[in-house]
Amino acid sequence: MFNEFEMTDNGLISYFLGIKVKQQQEEIFISQKKYMKDILEKFKMNECNPMNALVAIIMKLPREGDGCFVDSTLFKSPVGGLRYLTITRPDITYGVGLVSRYMETPNEPHWLAAKRILRYIKGTLNLGLFYIYDENAQLVGYSDGDWGDDQDERKSTTCYVFYLGSTAFSWTSKKQGVIALSSCEAAYVAAASTICEAIWLRNILKELDHPQEDLTIIFVDNKSAI
Predict the structure, then answer these.
(1) In whole angstroms, how far apart are CA 64 and each of 108, 151, 157, 186, 215?
(2) pLDDT for 38-91, tens place per residue?
(3) CB neighbour list of residue 196: distance below 8 Å, 6 or more residues apart
(4) CB burial class (10 A; 0-12, 13-18, 19+) of residue 140?
């Protein structure tokens, strides 16, 4: 399945569909640095001013806002590339999910938001997922949900991330299927989705001979939902 291998003094390095996997005795580092550079070069952002934080992308983006419309084919290309990057970059999942909602009728604010993510990528090229071997690593989940931030349908967003040991293992950011009437309800819906994922992950880990003997803790930041 891997299309390239390289043995170095620091371990085995393999490549698969733009993903670099560096394996050492008890640790693995997964990244897409070359793929990130290719995206930046393709969209002439390789010389852009980098950003070290993605706070600017967390904004309210209506479907029909100020600014001229952008060619949807042009817009889909960088957004599609960014979606593939979420394989190793959970930190951009929310922002990429946000701009992905406007693939069919993008306008200038949506395009600028996508470019902000690319600028953030430029400033964080060395980030990836670093896994350390630990036979006792426990699955831990974190759940969150905004309330009605979608400007068109007033729906909330479910976000969760699971850690196995010290590194992210599974994550998502997606619009909820129902309209929550309170922040408590939005957080509760997000927590329910998180628990369903936890059950599935526990079953997967059992099949991989890493069963979770203890209870899996889910952290939720809404006292009413808890």
Answers:
(1) 10, 10, 20, 25, 45
(2) 999 999 999 999 988 776 555 667 777 677 888 999 999 999 999 999 999 999
(3) none
(4) middle
Which stretches within the chain are classed as H helix?
A: 33-42, 72-85, 93-100, 108-123, 183-207
Q: How far apart are CA 106 and CA 99, in angstroms?
A: 9
pTM across the whole model: 0.88
On whether the CB atoms of residues 172 and 158 are closer than 8 A, the answer is yes
> In one letter, which amino acid is 48?
C
Burial of 187 by CB count in 10 Å (0-12 exposed, 13-18 middle, 19+ buried)?
buried
Q: Domain 135-220: which CATH class?
A: alpha beta
Q: Indicate the Cα dihedral angle 32, 20, 169, 122, nearest 10°.
A: -20
| β pairing state of 139-145 and 217-220 | parallel
pLDDT digits (tens, 9 = 90+) for 173-212: 999 999 999 999 999 999 999 999 999 999 999 999 999 9
List where CATH 3.30.420.10 sits in the chain: 135-220
Q: Tokens 């599609």 belong to which residue?
A: 80
Closest CA to 48 of 111, 95, 118: 118
